[in-house]
Amino acid sequence: MKINVLFVMGQMGMGGSERLIHNLVKNMDRGAYNASIAWFYLEKVLPEFKELGIPLYHIPKEKRVDFATMKKLAELIRDQDIHVVNAHHFLPFVYSFYGSKIKNQAILVYTEHSEAEIRSIPWKWRALGKYMLGRADCLVGINERITEALLKTFDSGNTRHKTIRNGVDLDAFKEIREKNSLRRELGLSNTEILIGIVANFRKNKNHLFLLKAFRELLRFHGNIKLYLVGQGFCHDPDNSEVEIRRYISTNGMEENVVLAGYRPDVSTLLGAMDIFCLTSHKEGLPIAMIEAMASSLPIVGTDAEGIRDVIRHRENGFLVEIDNVEALVNALGSLIDDDSLRRNMGRRSRDLATENYSLRECLGQYQDLFQSLL
Which structural domain range is residue 78 located in? Predict the structure, then answer.
């Protein structure tokens, strides 16, 4: 009998956790698993999810605490005979608990992607969280620190837990040999250096820090462009798109900074880039950065949790202090000026991605976990 697995996510977007779910579903053993996805925010289905050919369920969440949403999710778990629910992030976990452990007898696996998210959970929710985590079947952190933070915050030492690192499809991000043709499609000459960031427009991603450094770089380099791949979401209180657009316009950077918006062809864009940069205040285990490494790109990132775990300073890129514009300018400038340094660090990036962040390993651990819990 096939195992029916329902992945529950907060929104129909393509941030790190949504990308992981997409990759897991796309590559699951269809002979052993029937996968489906449910989500709360943003009704319109992205093309990548449509192409998966699986059941997709939008269950709107309209209130701060929406019991109707919990009930609908419980009915879905019952009607579709779901055996395993894998909820990603704390809010989807809370909304999945009622349907999995109270109204039905489904296995419940909670995957957390952010140590900062755990720390930000209000005290009144921590007591409830402790109760629910004590009755969940397994807690999964995407790195060791997140797993430890879950156990410590909710005092859940006796709960089954596991660390499963995010992985990417390494074959999908091989170094693109036809880079020049890709660059021509983007309107780039062979001499221009393309710096890119793949991150939705949220204050935590700290795009303004990168834009400030890029403004300084433009004073000395006329051959550079910056691609911002991502978007803001209207329901998100952390949305920073207005500030980003204002800064670009105020500083007259429209010709050199491209707001690419949501793009389904991230692997293609990464293949055209020369340098990848991520300037977040904090991360879990950033899939976009791992994909850039798999694309043989040198990486520049902030010395922040999650990012410092991925970048090997001066091996495959540079770590810089958060909001230290001079340090970021120097790191990016050294890569802009030195083609051999970019190539050497890019090769090391690919090696590290292959060694540590294989989707095959990540998927295998999830499938083994689901099997063992049943």
Answer: 3-167+358-373
